[in-house]
Amino acid sequence: MAAAARAAEAKGVFAMCGFSYRRTPALTLARRLVDQGRLGTIRHVRAQYLQDWLTDETAPMTWRLDKSRSGSGSLGDIGAHSIDAAQYVTGLPITGVSGLLTTFVHERPLGGTLVGLGGQGSSDGATGTVTVDDAAIFSARFESGAIGVFEATRFATGRKNNMRLEVNGSLGSLAFDFENMNSLEFYDATQPPETAGFSTINVTDSVHPYTGNWWPAGHGLGYEHGFTHQVVDLVQAIADGTTPSPSFDEALRVQKVLHAIEKSAASDSGWQHV
């Protein structure tokens, strides 16, 4: 698909992959701070994507639990977003991984009532086999030598959409949590010790990415606004004649990381180059 997208672009037809979390103003601001050198040399990346909609063992079988239809479980469903966010914010590609995948519930009711992503399965005894991972963890090395730890699960009881990213550098750190999506935590290590500490940036001001086109400062945005920003950026790139981002090549880079994690998990977590 990446090659097809490049061939189409040569003829004036553009394409973009929908990693909409990039368009959350706080994450875009995080990328800006890294680009400005405010974090110095990147050393650590910590990423979590925690949900709980499968913690009920009687929740019904759905297409997301069938590898032939979904490709993978928590790894591809939500872990892919953490991988893209980490590479986007740091500007660094992942070059190697060691991964572990596990399935906690191997059989689920075939019928039942869907509620949101989960629901309540029927009690008629008919079940289907879960063929994807329920949880994934992996360590990673980035091109610069920075290291990362990642976790993706749909079994984190009490967590609804806890997509969290923390980046530590030689001059500062930043932390983001999508369950508090209008805020970004920032630590400036260049400040005097007596005043140093994490500060909370309310990312709703007109000087912040995207937010000047919406409500007055302090009036937060929601999940849906990321999709609007995505469309605007795609249309603007087409108007400018530039390659939209994330391109299919960038999406392929994420897919290669996912593939390396699966290969690692299948070989006792052996190190895999991406």
Keywords:
274 residues, alpha+beta, Dihydrodipicolinate Reductase, domain 2, nine-stranded mixed sheet, two-stranded antiparallel ribbon, 6 helices, globular
Task: Explain what this protein looks like in three dimensions.
- This protein is an alpha+beta fold and 274 residues long.
- The chain has a single domain (2-6, 13-266), classed as Dihydrodipicolinate Reductase, domain 2 (2-Layer Sandwich).
- Helix content is 27%, strand content 27%.
- It contains 6 helices and 13 strands.
- It has helices spanning 2-9, 25-35, 67-70, 74-90, 225-240, 248-265; strands spanning 42-50, 94-102, 107-109, 112-115, 118-121, 127-129, 135-142, 147-153, 162-169, 172-177, 183-188, 199-202, 272-273.
- The chain has a 9-stranded mixed sheet with strand order 12-11-10-9-1-8-7-2-13.
- It is globular, with a radius of gyration of 20 Å.
- The model has no long low-confidence stretch (mean pLDDT 93).
Provide the fold topology.
Layout lengths: L1 H8 L15 H11 L6 E9 L16 H4 L3 H17 L3 E9 L4 E3 L2 E4 L2 E4 L5 E3 L5 E8 L4 E7 L8 E8 L2 E6 L5 E6 L10 E4 L22 H16 L7 H18 L6 E2 L1
Parallel strand pairs: 1-8
Antiparallel strand pairs: 1-9, 2-7, 2-13, 3-6, 4-5, 7-8, 9-10, 10-11, 11-12
Helix pairs in contact: 1-6, 2-4, 4-6
Portion of residues in beta strands equals: 25-35%
Q: How large is the radius of gyration?
A: 20 Å
Q: In total, how many beta strands? A: 13
What count of helical segments does DSSP give?
6
- Major β-sheet profile: 9 strands, mixed
